[in-house]
Each structure stands twice: as structure tokens, then as C-alpha cells.
Amino acid sequence: MADTNSISNEEVVHVPTPPCLSKAEHPWMLTMGKECLSYEECVLRKVRGILNKLTVEKYKLLRGQLIRSGITTPCLLRQVASLIFDRAVSEPTFCPLYAFLCSELCQYLPSFPPDESGGKEVRFMRILMKYCQEAFEGENMMAAEIRQHDMAGASNQDFECRYKERRRNLGNIQFICELSKQKRVFLRIVHFMLKHLVERSDGCGVNIEAVCLLLNTVGKQLDEFSNESHVVNDTYFGCLEEMLNTHTQFESRLKYMLRDVLDLRANNWVHPRHKVKDKTISELIRCSTAEVLARLRLGATTTTNTRILVRDDSAP
């Protein structure tokens, strides 16, 4: 009884009810996809999304989506070419894939009449090559500026900007070389670029790196282009050999680059560490397509066999 009375005499604690949430006068709402975009902005957004997802496995599907994205004006064609160019030079690893894409797009994307009377027709590849030319000419100006800065010294911020610009310029050179492999750029243009870079590479690490990249990418094609081209290349490689022997102040990285290119040509453009021949982008796309079809056939066969087994098991 004592225990019961003590329990009944305990003080009861009342817990206050929590206040109700008050609704804001202007609540936040998801606005993605609700803003009013122009037709051109919608097309460019679609193209950016396609480029973000572009891989060898999804190439054919995304290429078709890009062709049907709605490029109906010369302005849109220029902007799409600019997007693809910027993506290619900023991602040198995927330059072969972007070059193969551009090689096929120039067959399917529309062309438009010239903006001015007597001008040239507005075509995708013509626009793309204009961007490449402007970037290459700007690169030569940047190389001279870098030589001047190297003598006077530069801040960390300037060094970072120069590094990004150098990476973009090297990506442009590799992109042009990959386009030449797709027969979209004449090899004589690549020859002109090589001559221009070799003549201005004496003591300039930027141009030496560009020369090595160019020769690693299309050196074999330049040698096999003609007998005259092979003889001209002998002169260029003689300059590189002399550069390697006379400029002892070069960084070890540049010395190894030069030595690798010289050894590669001496080995008939066969890399000693590559025992298996690399596949081209078109071969990779064919292989990936065949693999997808094989998986689909395997799935269909498995489904059919399962249906047969179920029917046999249920039979009397």
C-alpha cells in the first residue's frame, strides 16, 4: 500500500506540444527545367549532355542523337563546332574519339549558304579547321611570350595560366593530327606545322614538346606519304638529334621525349613496349557494337531456354 500511495502522489510532468512549422512567404521551389530557354539554348544544352556521355560503347547511339539535335542555323553550327573543339583540346586523351566523331558529323550535319555574297559555304569541317588554325597561330605567339617570361621570371598565377594554355595548345596539335588520320586534314598542312615548330624549337621547350607529340601521332604517316616527305623528315630528325646533343641545359623530361621519338623512327615507328597493335577508334566501335549484339543474342537465347524448361517441367 505504501508503494501505491507513493506512486499516486508523484508529480505529473506535462510536456509542451511543439510549435507548428510556419510556412514561409516565399518558399524555395525547384526551378530546374522551368526557366524559359530559347531554341538555341535548348539545342546547346542537349549537345553538352551528349558530349558529357560520349564513350566508345555509346558512340553510335549518341552520334545519332547529336545529328538529330536540331542544328538548323549557321549560328548553331558554329556553336556546336566550338563546343566539340573545346572539349577535344581540353581532353587530349579522347582526341581520337572526337576526331572520328567530327569525321562522321561532316557527312550528316547540314551546310548553309555563305553569309556574304561571294563567300564560302558554311560547313562544319570548315568551321572546325578555322578554330584549329586560330588556336595554332595563337600558340606561336604564346611560345614567344613564354620565352620572354622565362628570362624575366613569373609569378605562380602566371605559371598556372601558362600551364593550362600549353596543355590546350598541345591538345590542339594532337586534334589536328588525329583529323589528318581520318583524312580530314591534308598531310601538307601537318608538314607545314612540323616545319614551323622545328624552326622555332631551338631552346624553346614548348615547341620541342609539340614536335615530339606531332611526330608520335602522325610521324609514320608523314614518312610514308612520299619519298620527298621522307627526305624532308630526315632533315627534321637531324635537327632534333643536334638539339639533343648541343642543348645540355634541357630538362630531363624533354631529353627523354627527344630520345624516344628518335628511337621510335629508328625502330620503323614500332614502339618497343607495344607487342600488340593498337586498335583504331573505328575498330573499337565495331568491337563494342558486336559485343552488345552478342549480349542481346545471349539474353534472347537464355530467355528462350528458360521458357522451354518451364514448359517441359509443367508438362504431364
Write the layout of secondary structure elements.
Blueprint: H1 2-8, H2 39-52, H3 59-67, H4 74-90, H5 95-108, H6 124-152, H7 156-181, H8 187-199, H9 205-225, H10 227-246, H11 252-266, H12 281-314
Elements, N to C (H/E): HHHHHHHHHHHH
Oligomer: single chain
Instruction: Give the helix level as a range of percent.
Output: 55-70%
Residue share in β-strands: under 5%
Contiguous runs where pLDDT drops below 50 for at least 5 residues: 300-316
Alpha-beta content class: mainly alpha
Q: What global shape is seen?
A: extended
> How many DSSP helices?
12
What does the largest sheet look like?
A: none
Give the distance, in angstroms, between the N- and C-terminal Cα atoms.
Answer: 76 Å
Strand segment count: 0
Round the Cα radius of gyration to an integer and report it: 31 Å
